[in-house]
Design a protein that fits this description.
The structure is a single chain. This protein is mostly helical. The chain has eight helices and eight strands; from the N terminus they run αααβααβαβββαββαβ. The chain has helices at residues 3-12, 14-21, 41-64, 75-79, 89-107, 127-131, 159-162, 195-208, and strands spanning 69-70, 120-121, 134-135, 138-139, 145-146, 165-166, 176-177, 216-217. The strands form four sheets. Strands 1-2 form a two-stranded parallel ribbon.
C-alpha cells in the first residue's frame, strides 16, 4: 500500500476510531472539563463534526480551484456555541461518520498530483508554497520570484501570508517614506482605528512621529 493510500485509509477509519474512543461515555462524563480552558468530550466531538464540515468545502476548493483561499475560523468560539452542551453524542458521531465518508469517497478517486496542490490560508498564509521551498530549515526563494517583507515584521500581510511574488508582477518600486509614526505593536494587529488611537495621534503627533524616517528616499536594489 502506498503512503497516500495508507493515509486515506487511516482518514476513512477516523469515524470508527472516534466511536470506539467514546464508547461508554455518558452523562456528566461527556461534559467534564479536565482543566480550565480545556474542552469536554462533547465539545471535542462537536468540534470534529464542525471541522469535517469545513473540510467538505476546503477539499473541493483544493481540487477545483487554483490556489484557493481557505478562510480561518475561531475554534474556541465555535466550541462554545450556545446549545452545544445539549447535543446528543450519538447524533454528533453519526454526522461525523457521514461527512467523513462523503469526503473520503471524493478523495480516493483523485489523482496523486491533486494532493500536491497548494492554497492560501487567511491566517497561516501560503503554507504549501513556503513549505515546498525550505532547504535545511531555511526558506529558499525560487528563481524569478521575490520574498516581500512588510514594514511591521510582527504583523504584516507579506510573503509570509500570500507567498512569493513573481517577477512579472513587479511593475514599479517605492520612492519615499512620507510619514512614520510610533504606534504600539498591539495596535498594529488590526486594520480598525479606535478612538484611543485617534486621541493618541492627535496628542502625540509631533513627539511620536519618527522624523528621522519621514520624507526619506528609499534606496533599493535594481530588480534582476
Amino acid at each position: 500500500m502506498s503512503d497516500l493510500a495508507d493515509l486515506l485509509e487511516r482518514y476513512r477509519r477516523g469515524a470508527e476510531l472516534l466511536a470506539v474512543a467514546t464508547t461508554g461515555a455518558a452523562g456528566s462524563e461527556l461534559d467534564f472539563h479536565p482543566a480550565e480552558g480545556k474542552w469536554s468530550v462533547r465539545q471535542i466531538v462537536c468540534h470534529l463534526v464542525d471541522t469535517e464540515a469545513v473540510a467538505v468545502m476546503r477539499f473541493r476548493q483544493f481540487i477545483a480551484e487554483d490556489n484557493p483561499t481557505l478562510t480561518a475560523f475561531d475554534q474556541d468560539s465555535w466550541a462554545n456555541i450556545p446549545g452545544y452542551e445539549k447535543r446528543k453524542i450519538s447524533q454528533a458521531l453519526e454526522a461525523f461518520r457521514m461527512l467523513r465518508m462523503w469526503n473520503y469517497e471524493l478523495l480516493k478517486d483523485q489523482a496523486p498530483e491533486v494532493f500536491e496542490r497548494g492554497a492560501t490560508h487567511t491566517k497561516r498564509g501560503a503554507v504549501k508554497m513556503i513549505q515546498n521551498n525550505v532547504v535545511n530549515g531555511e526558506v529558499v526563494v525560487p528563481p524569478n520570484s521575490y520574498f516581500a517583507m512588510g514594514d511591521n515584521r510582527d504583523s504584516s500581510w507579506d510573503s509570509r501570508f500570500w507567498g512569493f511574488v513573481p517577477r512579472q508582477n513587479i511593475i514599479g518600486k517605492p520612492l519615499i517614506i512620507y510619514w512614520s509614526f510610533d504606534r504600539p505593536s498591539d495596535q498594529l494587529n488590526t486594520n480598525s482605528i479606535s478612538l484611543p488611537q485617534i486621541l493618541d495621534l492627535a496628542t502625540h503627533f509631533f513627539s511620536k512621529t519618527r522624523w528621522h524616517r519621514s520624507f526619506q528616499l528609499i534606496h533599493g536594489y535594481p530588480v534582476q
